[in-house]
Amino acid sequence: KSYRVAILGATGAVGAELLDLLASRNLPVADLKLLASSRSAGKSLQFQGENIVVESVSDRSFNNIDIVLASAGGSTSKAWAAKAVASGAVVIDNSSAFRMEPRVPLVVPEVNPQAAASHQGIIANPNCTTILMTVAVWPLHQVKRVQRIVAATYQSASGAGARAMEEVKIQAQAILNGETPTAEVLPYPLAFNLFPHNSPINELGYCEEEMKMVNETRKIFDDQNIRVTATCVRVPVLRAHSEAINLEFETPMSVQEAKEILSKAPGVQIVEDWKANYFPMPIEATGRDPVLVGRIRQDISHSHSLELWICGDQIRKGAALNAVQIAELLIKNDWLQPTSGNQQPVTIVNS
Ligand code: A2P
Fold it and tell me: How does the record describe its quaternary structure (predicted)?
């Protein structure tokens, strides 16, 4: 059996990666519809050697579509997801629009695949930094409970979209030319600079991106007691996010034990050469599927804590790949139809 798929936001950074992943992985695509705003209508994009014309999303866009991979921002998802579901499609939504809705599963296939079974038409793809963190932390949390996570992120321009990536290059060029860089997409010049993540700040002083890591991790782990705090920072890296993660366990976890667990964990690759001071780097995570984990060490300030350093491609595992893996999970387990609870054994899809 093959499926009719639509990409909403096909012309964006994540959209391009979705096209690439649909072509390179074995998702049985019978028909692919590319949707974006009216600005892009008429453009054509390549899929498996064929040109497909991008259409402006409309009421008719979702007729006869089985799976919608949406990556066009929260307001676009809010405007179209219900219409797509009413037309009989399952929406795998990359925006933050529905993530915290109780009836919408928030899924990282390596962590909580079973949650996808009980969707009611919409499945949410978590925030990119949260996906990368949960892939690395979940296998450890399974063996010895993690009580508290303290994270600092180093987030690339790609998280702000394709235009932000372009802007960083232009800013860098301006600086090299001795000019003063300007910022339009990003709030401040990012080239040769960094700034705390510019999402809205709440009454506690946490920005939205930081609160996503707190709240989404709890939902994905199905653990309302896990304590999470984060400082999110945008750095002048084009693509792939990095995170310094401190984990406080209920009982001590040795470095050796953590390495053994992570070496077998799905979606994780340990990258460590202590003699060469070689650890995960965004340029090496770029374009790759696994979350790279390194600098796994005992926290000298706390006997129950470990330090990790991770890098992962924000557009791939942090967005498009996770969404495609969710689609694969639905197909393999025959979970495309909305249901109020499917308790069949799950087939886990590894990245
Ligand atoms: P368009 O290229 O027509 O603006 P990125 O995250 O890289 O900025 O990409 C955002 C994606 O979301 C693009 O494909 C963009 O299409 C799409 N998009 C943005 N706003 C809308 C909208 N109102 N309706 C449909 N697609 C939208």
Answer: Homodimer.
Hey, CA dihedral for 129, 91, 345, 328, is it positive or negative? negative
Q: How close is the Cα of 37 to the center of ligand 1, in Å?
A: 6
* Topology at the third CATH level for domain 3-126+318-332: Rossmann fold (3.40.50)
Give the domain ranges of the chain: 3-126+318-332, 129-314
Q: Which of 14, 34, 37 to mutate to test the pocket of ligand 1 (most atoms within 8 A of CB)?
A: 37
119 is catalytic: no
Among 312, 350, 348, smallest CA distance to 128 is for 312
ipTM associated with this complex: 0.98
CA distance 84 to 6: 10
The answer regarding whether domain 129-314 maps to CATH 3.30.360.10 reads yes
> Is 4 assigned a ligand-binding role in the annotation?
no
Distance CA 117, CA 333 (A): 8
């915290």: which residue's tokens?
100
Per-residue pLDDT band for 340 (boundaries 50, 70, 90) equals: low
Q: What is the pLDDT of residues 185-229, one digit of tens each?
A: 999 999 999 999 999 999 999 999 999 999 999 999 999 999 999
- Which of 119, 141, 197, 241 is catalytic? The answer is 241
Tell me: the pLDDT tens digits for 44-99?
999 999 999 999 999 999 999 999 999 999 999 999 999 999 999 999 999 999 99
